[in-house]
Write a structure and sequence with these properties.
With about 375 residues, the protein is of the alpha+beta class. The protein is built from 16 helices and eleven strands. About 45% of the residues are buried.
Length: about 375
Protein backbone atom coordinates (compact mmCIF):
# COMPACT_ATOMS: atom_id res chain seq x y z
CA UNK A 1 0.00 0.00 0.00
CA UNK A 2 1.08 3.56 -0.69
CA UNK A 3 1.13 6.47 1.75
CA UNK A 4 -1.83 8.56 0.62
CA UNK A 5 0.13 11.71 1.52
CA UNK A 6 2.08 11.09 -1.68
CA UNK A 7 -1.05 11.92 -3.66
CA UNK A 8 0.14 15.48 -3.26
CA UNK A 9 -3.10 17.42 -2.89
CA UNK A 10 -5.87 17.77 -0.35
CA UNK A 11 -8.74 15.60 -1.51
CA UNK A 12 -12.47 15.86 -1.06
CA UNK A 13 -12.78 12.27 0.15
CA UNK A 14 -16.57 12.44 0.47
CA UNK A 15 -16.86 13.47 -3.17
CA UNK A 16 -14.49 10.70 -4.21
CA UNK A 17 -16.50 8.14 -2.23
CA UNK A 18 -19.66 9.32 -3.99
CA UNK A 19 -17.91 9.03 -7.36
CA UNK A 20 -16.70 5.52 -6.54
CA UNK A 21 -20.23 4.38 -5.80
CA UNK A 22 -21.49 5.91 -9.04
CA UNK A 23 -18.67 4.31 -11.07
CA UNK A 24 -19.42 0.94 -9.48
CA UNK A 25 -23.02 1.18 -10.65
CA UNK A 26 -21.86 2.16 -14.15
CA UNK A 27 -19.67 -0.97 -14.17
CA UNK A 28 -22.62 -3.23 -13.45
CA UNK A 29 -22.60 -3.47 -9.67
CA UNK A 30 -25.91 -3.04 -7.92
CA UNK A 31 -24.53 -1.41 -4.78
CA UNK A 32 -21.25 -0.23 -3.24
CA UNK A 33 -20.63 0.76 0.36
CA UNK A 34 -17.53 1.48 2.45
CA UNK A 35 -16.37 0.28 5.86
CA UNK A 36 -13.18 0.67 7.83
CA UNK A 37 -10.55 -2.04 8.19
CA UNK A 38 -11.80 -3.13 11.60
CA UNK A 39 -14.47 -5.80 11.27
CA UNK A 40 -14.95 -5.89 15.03
CA UNK A 41 -14.23 -8.59 17.62
CA UNK A 42 -17.42 -10.55 16.96
CA UNK A 43 -16.39 -11.44 13.42
CA UNK A 44 -13.12 -12.92 14.66
CA UNK A 45 -14.74 -14.69 17.61
CA UNK A 46 -17.46 -16.24 15.45
CA UNK A 47 -14.89 -17.43 12.91
CA UNK A 48 -12.74 -19.07 15.59
CA UNK A 49 -15.73 -20.77 17.20
CA UNK A 50 -16.80 -22.11 13.79
CA UNK A 51 -13.33 -23.46 13.11
CA UNK A 52 -13.02 -24.95 16.60
CA UNK A 53 -16.27 -26.84 16.02
CA UNK A 54 -14.80 -28.37 12.86
CA UNK A 55 -17.62 -27.01 10.74
CA UNK A 56 -15.22 -26.12 7.92
CA UNK A 57 -14.65 -29.80 7.07
CA UNK A 58 -11.86 -30.24 4.52
CA UNK A 59 -11.65 -26.50 3.78
CA UNK A 60 -8.31 -26.10 5.51
CA UNK A 61 -7.77 -22.77 3.77
CA UNK A 62 -10.45 -21.33 6.04
CA UNK A 63 -8.09 -21.73 9.00
CA UNK A 64 -4.78 -21.20 7.21
CA UNK A 65 -4.59 -17.42 7.64
CA UNK A 66 -5.68 -17.33 11.27
CA UNK A 67 -6.80 -13.93 12.51
CA UNK A 68 -5.82 -12.23 9.24
CA UNK A 69 -9.13 -13.33 7.74
CA UNK A 70 -10.93 -11.03 10.17
CA UNK A 71 -8.30 -8.28 10.06
CA UNK A 72 -8.02 -6.67 6.60
CA UNK A 73 -5.11 -4.42 7.66
CA UNK A 74 -3.07 -7.49 8.61
CA UNK A 75 -3.99 -9.40 5.48
CA UNK A 76 -3.01 -6.44 3.29
CA UNK A 77 -0.81 -4.05 5.29
CA UNK A 78 -1.81 -0.43 4.90
CA UNK A 79 -5.50 -1.14 4.30
CA UNK A 80 -7.68 1.62 5.74
CA UNK A 81 -11.00 0.98 4.00
CA UNK A 82 -12.91 -1.86 2.39
CA UNK A 83 -15.16 -1.01 -0.54
CA UNK A 84 -17.82 -3.73 -0.49
CA UNK A 85 -19.63 -4.40 -3.77
CA UNK A 86 -22.78 -6.31 -4.66
CA UNK A 87 -23.88 -7.70 -8.04
CA UNK A 88 -27.16 -9.54 -8.65
CA UNK A 89 -26.78 -12.87 -10.44
CA UNK A 90 -30.16 -14.56 -10.89
CA UNK A 91 -30.63 -15.13 -14.64
CA UNK A 92 -34.06 -13.88 -15.77
CA UNK A 93 -34.78 -16.64 -18.29
CA UNK A 94 -33.86 -19.63 -16.12
CA UNK A 95 -36.33 -22.45 -15.56
CA UNK A 96 -38.14 -22.21 -12.24
CA UNK A 97 -35.93 -23.62 -9.49
CA UNK A 98 -38.93 -25.17 -7.74
CA UNK A 99 -40.00 -26.90 -10.95
CA UNK A 100 -36.54 -28.43 -11.45
CA UNK A 101 -36.25 -29.54 -7.82
CA UNK A 102 -39.64 -31.22 -7.99
CA UNK A 103 -38.69 -33.12 -11.14
CA UNK A 104 -36.58 -36.04 -9.95
CA UNK A 105 -35.33 -36.75 -13.48
CA UNK A 106 -33.85 -33.26 -13.85
CA UNK A 107 -30.50 -31.99 -12.57
CA UNK A 108 -30.54 -28.93 -10.34
CA UNK A 109 -27.59 -26.54 -10.63
CA UNK A 110 -27.36 -23.62 -8.22
CA UNK A 111 -28.48 -20.54 -10.10
CA UNK A 112 -25.25 -18.65 -9.49
CA UNK A 113 -23.38 -21.25 -11.58
CA UNK A 114 -25.55 -21.24 -14.70
CA UNK A 115 -23.51 -18.60 -16.49
CA UNK A 116 -19.91 -17.44 -16.68
CA UNK A 117 -17.62 -17.92 -13.67
CA UNK A 118 -18.45 -15.02 -11.36
CA UNK A 119 -14.87 -14.81 -10.08
CA UNK A 120 -13.75 -13.62 -13.51
CA UNK A 121 -16.67 -11.27 -14.06
CA UNK A 122 -16.44 -9.47 -10.72
CA UNK A 123 -12.65 -9.35 -10.60
CA UNK A 124 -12.54 -7.72 -14.02
CA UNK A 125 -15.10 -5.09 -12.97
CA UNK A 126 -13.34 -4.37 -9.67
CA UNK A 127 -10.08 -3.88 -11.54
CA UNK A 128 -11.82 -1.40 -13.84
CA UNK A 129 -13.19 0.41 -10.79
CA UNK A 130 -9.67 0.65 -9.36
CA UNK A 131 -8.43 2.08 -12.65
CA UNK A 132 -11.12 4.78 -12.55
CA UNK A 133 -10.06 5.69 -9.03
CA UNK A 134 -6.42 5.94 -10.16
CA UNK A 135 -7.46 8.20 -13.04
CA UNK A 136 -9.28 10.52 -10.64
CA UNK A 137 -7.12 10.44 -7.52
CA UNK A 138 -3.71 9.25 -8.66
CA UNK A 139 -1.90 6.04 -7.78
CA UNK A 140 -3.07 4.39 -4.58
CA UNK A 141 -2.70 1.07 -2.80
CA UNK A 142 -5.38 -1.52 -3.35
CA UNK A 143 -6.14 -5.21 -3.72
CA UNK A 144 -9.27 -6.81 -5.18
CA UNK A 145 -10.98 -9.89 -3.78
CA UNK A 146 -13.76 -12.11 -5.13
CA UNK A 147 -14.44 -15.11 -2.92
CA UNK A 148 -10.94 -16.42 -3.62
CA UNK A 149 -8.86 -15.22 -0.67
CA UNK A 150 -9.17 -15.13 3.13
CA UNK A 151 -11.70 -12.31 3.33
CA UNK A 152 -14.79 -12.34 5.53
CA UNK A 153 -16.93 -10.82 2.80
CA UNK A 154 -20.28 -11.03 4.60
CA UNK A 155 -18.83 -9.43 7.74
CA UNK A 156 -17.37 -6.60 5.63
CA UNK A 157 -20.60 -6.10 3.69
CA UNK A 158 -22.62 -6.09 6.89
CA UNK A 159 -20.29 -3.55 8.51
CA UNK A 160 -20.50 -1.36 5.40
CA UNK A 161 -24.29 -1.34 5.57
CA UNK A 162 -24.98 -3.41 2.45
CA UNK A 163 -27.31 -5.69 4.40
CA UNK A 164 -27.46 -8.06 7.36
CA UNK A 165 -26.33 -11.63 7.91
CA UNK A 166 -29.31 -13.98 7.67
CA UNK A 167 -29.73 -17.07 9.80
CA UNK A 168 -28.44 -19.09 6.83
CA UNK A 169 -25.23 -16.94 7.10
CA UNK A 170 -25.72 -15.26 3.71
CA UNK A 171 -26.08 -11.50 3.37
CA UNK A 172 -29.67 -10.29 3.04
CA UNK A 173 -31.19 -7.02 1.93
CA UNK A 174 -34.80 -5.91 2.19
CA UNK A 175 -34.82 -4.65 -1.40
CA UNK A 176 -32.93 -7.47 -3.17
CA UNK A 177 -33.02 -10.60 -1.02
CA UNK A 178 -29.80 -12.63 -1.33
CA UNK A 179 -29.31 -13.71 -4.95
CA UNK A 180 -26.14 -11.68 -5.46
CA UNK A 181 -22.36 -11.92 -5.40
CA UNK A 182 -20.04 -9.92 -3.18
CA UNK A 183 -16.62 -8.52 -3.99
CA UNK A 184 -14.19 -6.26 -2.16
CA UNK A 185 -11.61 -3.61 -2.93
CA UNK A 186 -9.15 -3.09 -0.07
CA UNK A 187 -7.67 0.41 -0.22
CA UNK A 188 -5.41 2.77 1.70
CA UNK A 189 -7.58 5.79 0.82
CA UNK A 190 -9.15 7.49 3.91
CA UNK A 191 -12.66 7.47 2.48
CA UNK A 192 -15.65 8.26 4.72
CA UNK A 193 -17.35 5.11 5.96
CA UNK A 194 -21.00 4.10 5.72
CA UNK A 195 -22.93 3.10 8.84
CA UNK A 196 -24.11 -0.49 9.28
CA UNK A 197 -27.83 -1.19 9.39
CA UNK A 198 -29.44 -0.44 12.73
CA UNK A 199 -31.01 -3.90 12.90
CA UNK A 200 -31.42 -7.22 11.11
CA UNK A 201 -34.79 -8.28 9.76
CA UNK A 202 -35.04 -12.05 10.10
CA UNK A 203 -37.08 -11.80 13.28
CA UNK A 204 -38.44 -15.12 14.46
CA UNK A 205 -38.43 -16.67 10.98
CA UNK A 206 -36.63 -20.04 10.79
CA UNK A 207 -37.63 -21.20 7.31
CA UNK A 208 -34.03 -21.60 6.11
CA UNK A 209 -33.19 -23.73 9.16
CA UNK A 210 -36.33 -25.85 8.96
CA UNK A 211 -36.14 -26.55 5.23
CA UNK A 212 -32.41 -27.19 4.76
CA UNK A 213 -32.42 -30.64 3.08
CA UNK A 214 -29.51 -31.95 5.16
CA UNK A 215 -30.13 -29.87 8.30
CA UNK A 216 -26.77 -28.19 7.82
CA UNK A 217 -27.90 -24.97 9.53
CA UNK A 218 -27.32 -26.30 13.02
CA UNK A 219 -28.33 -23.06 14.75
CA UNK A 220 -29.14 -19.51 13.65
CA UNK A 221 -26.08 -18.06 11.89
CA UNK A 222 -24.18 -21.39 12.08
CA UNK A 223 -23.71 -23.76 9.15
CA UNK A 224 -21.95 -27.10 9.51
CA UNK A 225 -20.35 -27.23 6.07
CA UNK A 226 -19.81 -30.97 6.42
CA UNK A 227 -23.56 -31.43 5.99
CA UNK A 228 -24.17 -28.63 3.48
CA UNK A 229 -25.09 -29.75 -0.06
CA UNK A 230 -22.95 -26.98 -1.55
CA UNK A 231 -19.92 -28.24 0.35
CA UNK A 232 -20.67 -31.89 -0.45
CA UNK A 233 -21.08 -31.30 -4.19
CA UNK A 234 -18.37 -28.66 -4.66
CA UNK A 235 -15.70 -28.60 -1.94
CA UNK A 236 -15.58 -32.23 -0.81
CA UNK A 237 -13.02 -34.14 -2.85
CA UNK A 238 -13.80 -37.70 -1.83
CA UNK A 239 -16.89 -39.80 -1.34
CA UNK A 240 -20.09 -38.16 -0.18
CA UNK A 241 -21.19 -39.71 3.14
CA UNK A 242 -23.77 -42.40 2.38
CA UNK A 243 -26.22 -41.18 5.00
CA UNK A 244 -26.40 -37.77 3.30
CA UNK A 245 -26.75 -38.96 -0.29
CA UNK A 246 -30.53 -39.58 -0.19
CA UNK A 247 -31.02 -36.08 1.23
CA UNK A 248 -29.21 -34.41 -1.66
CA UNK A 249 -31.95 -35.30 -4.10
CA UNK A 250 -31.23 -34.06 -7.62
CA UNK A 251 -28.90 -31.22 -6.60
CA UNK A 252 -25.75 -31.88 -8.64
CA UNK A 253 -23.94 -28.57 -8.05
CA UNK A 254 -24.72 -26.44 -5.05
CA UNK A 255 -28.02 -25.81 -3.30
CA UNK A 256 -30.34 -22.80 -3.20
CA UNK A 257 -32.98 -24.11 -0.82
CA UNK A 258 -32.24 -21.71 2.04
CA UNK A 259 -32.56 -18.82 -0.38
CA UNK A 260 -35.62 -20.14 -2.20
CA UNK A 261 -37.56 -20.39 1.04
CA UNK A 262 -36.47 -17.00 2.42
CA UNK A 263 -39.35 -14.50 2.44
CA UNK A 264 -37.00 -11.65 1.55
CA UNK A 265 -36.26 -13.23 -1.81
CA UNK A 266 -39.75 -12.24 -2.93
CA UNK A 267 -37.95 -8.99 -3.67
CA UNK A 268 -34.93 -10.53 -5.41
CA UNK A 269 -34.04 -8.77 -8.64
CA UNK A 270 -32.93 -10.59 -11.79
CA UNK A 271 -29.50 -9.77 -13.16
CA UNK A 272 -29.01 -7.56 -16.19
CA UNK A 273 -25.52 -9.00 -16.69
CA UNK A 274 -25.28 -11.01 -19.90
CA UNK A 275 -22.36 -13.03 -18.51
CA UNK A 276 -24.75 -14.60 -15.99
CA UNK A 277 -27.22 -15.76 -18.65
CA UNK A 278 -27.86 -19.52 -18.77
CA UNK A 279 -25.27 -21.53 -20.69
CA UNK A 280 -25.63 -25.04 -22.13
CA UNK A 281 -29.24 -25.37 -21.01
CA UNK A 282 -28.12 -26.25 -17.49
CA UNK A 283 -31.22 -24.70 -15.96
CA UNK A 284 -33.39 -27.49 -17.39
CA UNK A 285 -31.53 -30.68 -18.29
CA UNK A 286 -31.93 -34.33 -17.37
CA UNK A 287 -29.57 -36.28 -15.14
CA UNK A 288 -29.35 -39.02 -17.78
CA UNK A 289 -28.22 -36.54 -20.43
CA UNK A 290 -25.50 -35.05 -18.22
CA UNK A 291 -24.25 -38.48 -17.17
CA UNK A 292 -23.63 -39.34 -20.82
CA UNK A 293 -21.21 -36.43 -21.30
CA UNK A 294 -17.66 -37.44 -22.10
CA UNK A 295 -14.77 -35.70 -20.40
CA UNK A 296 -14.27 -33.70 -23.58
CA UNK A 297 -17.92 -32.67 -23.47
CA UNK A 298 -17.41 -31.50 -19.90
CA UNK A 299 -14.36 -29.47 -20.88
CA UNK A 300 -15.93 -27.96 -23.99
CA UNK A 301 -19.22 -27.00 -22.39
CA UNK A 302 -18.22 -25.97 -18.90
CA UNK A 303 -14.90 -24.19 -19.48
CA UNK A 304 -15.25 -20.66 -18.15
CA UNK A 305 -17.93 -21.59 -15.62
CA UNK A 306 -17.72 -22.03 -11.86
CA UNK A 307 -18.62 -25.72 -12.29
CA UNK A 308 -15.44 -26.43 -14.26
CA UNK A 309 -13.23 -26.22 -11.18
CA UNK A 310 -14.69 -29.35 -9.53
CA UNK A 311 -13.53 -31.46 -12.47
CA UNK A 312 -15.14 -34.25 -14.44
CA UNK A 313 -14.77 -36.94 -11.78
CA UNK A 314 -16.68 -35.07 -9.07
CA UNK A 315 -19.23 -33.93 -11.63
CA UNK A 316 -20.01 -37.59 -12.41
CA UNK A 317 -19.99 -38.44 -8.69
CA UNK A 318 -22.66 -35.82 -8.06
CA UNK A 319 -24.83 -36.91 -10.98
CA UNK A 320 -24.59 -40.54 -9.88
CA UNK A 321 -26.08 -39.52 -6.53
CA UNK A 322 -28.84 -37.65 -8.35
CA UNK A 323 -29.58 -40.75 -10.45
CA UNK A 324 -29.69 -42.86 -7.30
CA UNK A 325 -32.39 -40.53 -5.99
CA UNK A 326 -34.27 -40.29 -9.31
CA UNK A 327 -37.49 -42.17 -10.09
CA UNK A 328 -36.60 -45.66 -11.21
CA UNK A 329 -36.73 -46.04 -15.00
CA UNK A 330 -35.08 -48.03 -17.76
CA UNK A 331 -33.17 -44.93 -18.86
CA UNK A 332 -31.84 -44.26 -15.35
CA UNK A 333 -30.77 -47.88 -14.79
CA UNK A 334 -29.10 -48.05 -18.20
CA UNK A 335 -27.22 -44.79 -17.61
CA UNK A 336 -25.86 -46.15 -14.34
CA UNK A 337 -24.91 -49.50 -15.90
CA UNK A 338 -22.99 -47.60 -18.58
CA UNK A 339 -20.72 -46.18 -15.86
CA UNK A 340 -20.26 -49.32 -13.76
CA UNK A 341 -16.73 -49.75 -15.13
CA UNK A 342 -15.77 -46.09 -15.08
CA UNK A 343 -12.00 -45.55 -14.72
CA UNK A 344 -12.62 -43.58 -11.52
CA UNK A 345 -13.04 -45.59 -8.32
CA UNK A 346 -14.91 -42.63 -6.85
CA UNK A 347 -17.46 -42.69 -9.67
CA UNK A 348 -17.80 -46.49 -9.60
CA UNK A 349 -18.55 -46.46 -5.88
CA UNK A 350 -21.32 -43.87 -6.25
CA UNK A 351 -22.76 -45.71 -9.25
CA UNK A 352 -22.86 -48.94 -7.24
CA UNK A 353 -24.67 -47.11 -4.45
CA UNK A 354 -27.19 -45.67 -6.91
CA UNK A 355 -27.89 -49.06 -8.46
CA UNK A 356 -28.34 -50.57 -5.01
CA UNK A 357 -30.84 -47.82 -4.22
CA UNK A 358 -32.90 -48.81 -7.22
CA UNK A 359 -32.73 -52.48 -6.24
CA UNK A 360 -34.31 -51.40 -2.94
CA UNK A 361 -36.96 -49.44 -4.82
CA UNK A 362 -37.83 -52.45 -6.98
CA UNK A 363 -38.33 -54.80 -4.04
CA UNK A 364 -41.97 -55.61 -3.32
Amino acid sequence: MHDVSTLGVERDWAALASDIKRWAMELGFDAAMICDADLGPKAEQDLQAWLDAGYHGEMDYMAAHGSKRARPAELVPGTRRVISLRMNYRPPAAKSSDAVLQNGEAAFVSRYALGRDYHKVLRNRIQKLAERIVAAAGDFGYRAFVDSAPVMEVAAAERAGLGWRGKHTLLLTREHGSFFFLGELFTDLPLPIDPPLAQEHCGRCTRCIDLCPTQAIVAPYQVDARRCVSYLTIELKGAIPTELRPLIGNRVYGCDDCQLTCPWNRFAVDSNESDFAVRNGLDDVSLVELFAWSEQDFRNRLAGTAIYRIGYERWLRNIAVGLGNAPCSTAVIQALHNRQDDPSELVREHVAWALARHQEVRRP
